[in-house]
Each structure stands twice: as structure tokens, then as C-alpha cells.
Amino acid sequence: MKRLIYSTVLGLALTGAALWAQADTQGAKQEMKQAGHDVKDAAKSTGRATKKTAKKGARKVKHGAHKAAEAVEDKTK
Question: Distance of alpha carbon 19 from its chain centroid, rounded?
């Protein structure tokens, strides 16, 4: 009788451990997927910010060049 009880307890423990390990593996897989998505989103955000900053800087340079050209033109008249 004790042997049956020990075998049952051991079987349940191993089954629980196997299920827990599988659930943990699925959790790790999902975490890796999420990390990949987070990196992708961060790269997109950085790219957008870089594009916006470059455009803004180019506009400022263009505006400054026009302003300087007007100033030179006014002095030469």
C-alpha cells in the first residue's frame, strides 16, 4: 500500500514538474517575442525622431541662408 502511495505521489510530482517546465518555456518564448517587438518599436521611434530632427535642422539652415542672402542683398544696394 505504501508503495502505491509513494508511486502516485512521485508520479504526480513529476507530472506537475513537467507541466510547470513546459509552461515556463512558453513564458520564456513569449518574453523573447515581446522583447523583439519592443526593439522593433524602439528602432521605429528612433528613426522617426531622427527624420524629424533632420528635417527641422534643414529648414532652419534654409531659413538662415535666405535671411543672410537678404541681408547681403540689402547692403549691396
Answer: 30
Cα Rg, the chain, nearest whole Å: 33
16-46: pLDDT as tens digits: 655 555 556 678 888 899 999 999 999 999 9
Residues whose CB falls within 8 Å of the CB of residue 52, separated by 6 or more in sequence, listed in order: none
Q: Return all residues near 28 (Cβ < 8 A) that are at least 6 apart.
A: none
Query: What is the C-alpha to C-alpha distance for residues 52 and 39, in angstroms, rounded to an integer?
Result: 20
41-77: pLDDT as tens digits: 999 999 999 999 999 999 999 999 999 988 888 787 6
Where in the chain does DSSP place strands (E)? none
Q: In this predicted structure, what is the pLDDT of residue 5?
A: 79
What is the Cα–Cα distance from 61 to 68, expressed in whole angstroms? 10
